Amino acid sequence: MSQPPAFTTFQTRTGKRVHRLPVEAFPNMWANAYLVETGDWLVLIDTGSGRDKSNEDLEAGLSRAGYRSTDLTHILLTHGHIDHFGGLPYLRQQTQAPLGLHELDLQTVSRHEERLALMTRRLQDFLSQAGVAGERRGELIQMYRFTKALYHSVPVDFTYEASDMQVGPFEMIHLPGHCPGHVAIKLEDVIFTGDLVLERIVPHQSPEELTPYMGLRHYLESLTALKHWSEGASLVLNGHDDPIPDLPGRVEAIRRHVSGRIRQTLEALSEPRTIDEVTQQVYGPMGGYNALLVLEKIGAYVENLYQRGLLEITNLDELDNGQPAAVEYRRLRDVNDSEILPKEKSYVFV
Ligand SMILES: [Zn+2]
Ligand SMILES: [Zn+2]
What we know:
Shape: globular
Distance between the termini: 32 Å
Oligomer: single chain
Low-confidence stretches: none
CATH superfamily of the largest domain: Ribonuclease Z/Hydroxyacylglutathione hydrolase-like
Order of helices and strands: EEEEHEHHEHHHEEEEEHEHHHEHE
CATH topology of the largest domain: Metallo-beta-lactamase, Chain A
Strand order of the largest sheet: 1-2-3-4-5-6-7
Number of strands: 14
Structural class: alpha/beta
Strand content: 15-25%
Largest sheet: 7 strands, mixed
Number of helices: 11
CATH class of the largest domain: Alpha Beta
CATH architecture of the largest domain: 4-Layer Sandwich
Bound molecules: zinc ion
Helix content: 25-40%
Mean pLDDT: 95
């Protein structure tokens, strides 16, 4: 997105002030942190990426709201993606305000170097199986590590499940799928959705084989849960763009978009193809970090179609050899429109 979102002040039902602090997390990529005045507390929700520009934007936003980072009493994270927690090393120099997040993102933030080493190995495996060959694979891995290398681990003070998903006046719900420990946060009639639902962007997905609690099924179930949990909310704020005026409508639009991509994935799989080949077919040539993101997306779709028995693997002989080989999938049969996505649950699991 090229247009930066603007600093904006909102109010909850009882008049608590919520400020949106847009930061340039990466060049031309904007993220929202939020500053909430509860009366007793001054809470920062998410922190930007930690790049110099992001930290400067964060301080500028705090100052427009009449504060500095040294005034914060709490820091809460919606999820463990670098554009949301990367500002922590900087903030820790300014304030010892207690930091909270969901258990499943704990190690990403507090033992980052270990997680990065493990994730790099898993990504290597995923990319080889996806059919991404030597040099290109190396480039993608390097890019993956580069965006995260600036960060160093920060200790976490408390976790949400241990706090019964309630921190002072804030209520949390665990919504995995975009990130393992993703939560939405509720304060009175205001919902912070993090990146689970965005107004103008379809949130990223990646396969569960890369990270537990990811994958299409978790993501779609979380969309349904968020929709029900947010009934009656009058303001829905997200991690990257503008407030979402119609959450159920936006959820439906995201489901439609994903369903269209899965339809294209199934079309590409009328003959045996690797995840890399399907990705080329569906998205065409992609450069930079986006090349990795679309491989992970198609990886999530293929994983889900295979789990649901709609695909077969066509090169079992090669895989059985024990040789490192790309996996080739093929569609088993024609798939109805009603089968493209896993069924939306009719019950609520909140
Ligand atoms: Zn995210
Ligand atoms: Zn984000």
